[in-house]
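Give me structure tokens for this 376-residue protein.
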Amino acid sequence: MSQKKRQHYVPKFLLKKFSIDGNDKQINIYNIENAKFITNASLKEQCALDYFYGKDDDLEEGFAEMETEASKIINSIILKNIVPERKSVDFLTLISFSLILSARTPNCEEEISDFFSAIDKKMMMMDPRLKQYGDKIECKINEPLKRSLYAMISELPVALDLEVKLLVNNTAKSFWLSDNPVVYYNSFFEKKTKWFTGTGLADKGLQIFLPISPKHMLHFYDSDVYKVGCARKKTIELFNDYDIYSLNKIQFINSKNCIYSNQGFIEPEINQLNDINKKIKNNQEPICQECKTQFQKQDNEVVLLTRLRKNINCKFSLKIIKLLDKAKKYDLGNKLIHYRNESLVKANQEFLRLVDNGQYNLYDIIKFAKDKTGKA
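Here you go.
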């Protein structure tokens, strides 16, 4: 039995960054479902559920170890306004923490559960004996959170080519944090097609945003598609209130139910965001999308089922983020998937095959890379 009944899915150290006057105890909340403002709320109980990771301590202890290392790096980033160099150990820790954080929330658990349930039901409906029961069939999966985490750890290496910059908020407004704080976006595909979200870890044009304090936000991105601020600078200062509003907007839309801030909320601004949020949530792409193919297996048509993150496209843009000319000219053609780095994807697929064959452990990606390159 776990010694920790209340388990945080957004780390407490991160929530404390958004506490009122930095007191680590109180925080301001806007509850979206109930349209309720809560001032000076207790921070202790936020983003926590009873036995969310199960009744053993394995996951909780694993997260605690990673959070300890990540908090040191984030504290240094906030103090010095500098992000780690890509390919450094600190960068690897930072991006691993950010991506695993995105896979350990109730929002992600719900998406994974919906996806696998939809696939199971789709497969069952292909059986003529079950087809007549239609919507009466319900499918549920066990431990969706563990599936989500396993999938993220398996895919994490394909994200290691992303660039990172630090967005520093120099306005009087604060960045917000939500109960689902890691935002995946793709402005590149938003401008090119409405059918493809492009928010998979290996997708061309991927953007990831994570606020780490009211004045600091991490931005991971595809440097082959976007120019973010000055090419030579790893820190980008923001002086425009609208840029802060835009970043808070995608945090709001990506949330499950709660927004957190060290400042009070402006009601007209919240009302506007509620209207935008409702329109997007009412028109979201399904989690499980069926794509017909031209392939045939015997007399049956082959159907491809794909998983999409919930689409939060809201015409998000910042003046500091620009599409490179080669990205503007990029032709989608008839390809279904557009990888950012195909060689990295193939290397990761090879690694996962070797894991299945027992030649490596899932956590041996660095050892695999050294073996692959012949470096000690």
